[in-house]
Sequence to fold (547 residues):
Amino acid sequence: MADITETSEWAALSEHQGELATRNLRELFADDPARAERMTVTAGDLFLDYSKHRATGETIARLVALAEKAGLRDRIDAMFSGARINVSENRAVLHTALRLPASAELVVDGQDVVAEVHAVLERMGEFSDRVRSGEWTGFTGRRITTVVNIGIGGSDLGPAMAYEALRDYADAGIDARFVSNVDPADITGTLAGLDPETTLFIVASKTFGTLETLTNARVARRWLVERLGDEKAVSRHFVAVSTNAERVADFGIDTDNMFGFWDWVGGRYSMDSAIGLSLMVVVGPARFREMLDGFHAVDEHFRTTPFERNMPVLMALLGVWYTDFFGAQTRAVLPYSQRLARFPAYLQQLTMESNGKSVRADGAPVVAQTGEIFWGEPGTNGQHAFYQLLHQGTRLVPADFIGFAEPFEDASAGDGTPGMHDLLVANLLAQTSALAFGKTAEEIASEGTPADVVPHKVMPGNRPTNTILVPKLTPSTLGQLIALYEHIVFVEGTVWGIDSFDQWGVELGKVMANQLTPALTAEEPSGDTPDASTAALVRRYRELRGR
Ligand code: F6P
Fold:
């Protein structure tokens, strides 16, 4: 595998960066006001304005040339056709098959994966309908009013984020809670106030071997059985989502009440598989399918649109541009939607577990910087917290602003002041404009600002942003947004030459935690600790716990 940083396309971008580094967005817009209209693209219902980037048409052409050099076209075809592109685990990467329509066909290793996907969707739909209608009851015959999803990482963040995003669509009187952390505060806080007779637990774990999930599930089972006084209650109150039927059975959940998926679905790409069962129960199978159709619309856009007009490709390449040519460390994701409060956290796993790699797919060290650090909070809250650094700090923080034209439900004070949603959107637009164009010392001085204060008020501008404008937050547009970022990760990973679908870096800590637990809990202190610092901390912990 060639090192991408050794290519002439990379060198051309380096040189081009030198030219653009001295130019600012005020100049770029003055030279070419039409860029505001031209540097836009649509994918499904998503509209992207990428004009406020430190980039010109030439930049885009050079970035596209880099993507072509990295073999992006072939990689896209390979992923969609089920090739084993997750090389270190020798697996296909087929989350896009989870949202293919039933009429499609995709045969991988002799199996029509579309038929399998839709068979599981059917079972999920039947189960969800039974719970929603009250036909499926708890052990004492009462209908289910709360589902508790027990999972972590990809088996938690996706459904938890989507539940928050789509809770306006919950129409069956069922709410959801999510437990993930092995911190006892999580499960005890979640169970507090719940009625065991009306609670359904969904234990979601791809491997069904994850310490946090199995521990939380055992605690929940004990809580249920103690309160309902009968082991037999478990089968009415626990269902599982997993790829591992044997472990599900070992845990004591009837595999008739298990919903499967496949090793070709990575954990962080699984919220549209059976891992989304809690969401489906809450919003119903029809809404869930609308979400899948949304994913599919952006999959098709990604698969078929020329790179110059391909939204995930453009956003990914601009990510590479800032990461590798401007030295940016992070990317802020700023949804102007309270409902998307968990979206940045969801994206953190999706992007950082995927692209936080320092070897290439062939095992050689990477030379480029990889893995953007994603972070963010909903606007407008973030404006009153960390935006100061975005506007006037010394670091370059490219940011994605996500806004919606229509709210699910607007509100106003009723005194002639604008509706709340218009205020929200006005803030989004104000921020991207201020970040791009800033305010000069002359402009500030001309307002009568004392000379000694002027430098403090200068807004440097030239801070790049994407603005993604969406008609409304719906199941479909949520699916579209998620698919957009999934494909951004893929394109960046392709340019960097890494395997975006394994996550070996999380394994060592898991093994060591298992080894360390006895050192914390054993009656007698043992010398079984990996290093001097950890040994000292273990001693301190034991002392504090009186052990
Ligand atoms: O530890 C990382 C990880 O393996 C994630 O990739 C995954 O989403 C999460 O743990 C949970 O895994 P599982 O669904 O197998 O419980």
